[in-house]
Write a structure and sequence with these properties.
Radius of gyration: 15 Å
Strand content: 25-35%
Low-confidence stretches: none
Structural class: alpha+beta
Order of helices and strands: HEEEEHEEE
Strand order of the largest sheet: 4-7-6-5
Distance between the termini: 34 Å
Helix content: 10-25%
């Protein structure tokens, strides 16, 4: 996370996560439907380079999935919040999904099952 306070606000207010713990401006733990996510900022040990020099960076395609039962409403809330989407909502055999970025550029998938 480049800014834990901004990300914490996003996860809490936009996605509906519950704040379990917050340790100053650099670390927080949030939860949604029993799934726990750690938000770790640039001043934490999680931001230190790996032994080979690689830096932890947001992006890529590994992502958390947020399940939804009101997909269209959730997408509307994300649009209203100015969220950056990676794709348009799509439908597949399992349901509907869209991938968007959190404030640090980490991908999140909103998913609504067909069943």
């Amino acid at each position: 996370m480049s800014d834990v306070v901004e990300s914490l606000t996003f996860y809490r207010d936009v996605l509906g996560f519950e704040v379990l713990e917050q340790w100053g401006p650099n670390f927080a733990i949030v939860q949604l439907a029993g799934d726990v996510l750690w938000l770790s900022g640039p001043a934490t040990s999680a931001a230190k380079p790996m032994p080979n020099g690689d830096q932890p960076l947001p992006g890529g395609w590994n992502r958390i999935v947020v399940a939804s039962t009101d997909f269209d409403v959730q997408v509307g809330r994300l649009v209203a919040a100015g969220v950056s989407f990676r794709n348009e909502p799509i439908s597949g055999p399992g349901g509907r999904q869209v991938v968007f970025n959190d404030p640090s550029g980490n991908p999140i998938e909103l998913f609504e099952s067909r069943g």
